[in-house]
Structure prediction request, 147 residues.
Amino acid sequence: MIDRLVVWVARKAWLAYLVARRRRDIASGRLSMGSGSYGFPRVDYYDPDIPQGRVIIGKNCAIARGVVFVCGGNHYKAVGGESYSKGNITIGDNVWIGTEATIMSGVTVGEGAFIGAKSVVAKDVPAMAVVVGNPARVIKIRDQSSQ
Prediction:
C-alpha cells in the first residue's frame, strides 16, 4: 500500500514539473503551441544568452512522452567557438510525434506528418510523410484522403 502511494505521489510531482516547464517555455516565447495540441515536449537551449530560435507547434498536434526539440548547440563557429542555431523549429498542423523523438533546429515538419518513436529529425519533413530512424528518413507518403 505504501509503495503504491509513493509511486502515485512521484507521478503527481513529475507531472507538476512538466506542466511548470511547459508554462515557463511558453511564457519566455521559446515555445508556441496551437489549439488542440497536447504533450510536454522538452525544449533544449545550450546557451540562454545566445538567440537560438523558437519551437512553433501547429494545431491538433500529438506530442508523445520524451520528445526533445534541440534549439541550438548544433555546430561551432570557426571564430569564438560559440554554438548557434539553424533557426526555428516549425511543426505543421495535425502532426504526430512519437516517444523520445529528437528534432533539431531549423527543421520544418509538414502538415499531417508522422514522426516515429526515437527518430532523430535533422532535415525538413514533407507534408503527410511518415519518417522513422536515426537519421530520420521518409518511408511513406500518406494519402491525402486518409486524413
Notes: Residues 2-27 form the longest helix (26 residues). The longest strand covers residues 137-141. The helical segments are 2-27. DSSP finds one helix and 15 strands in the chain.
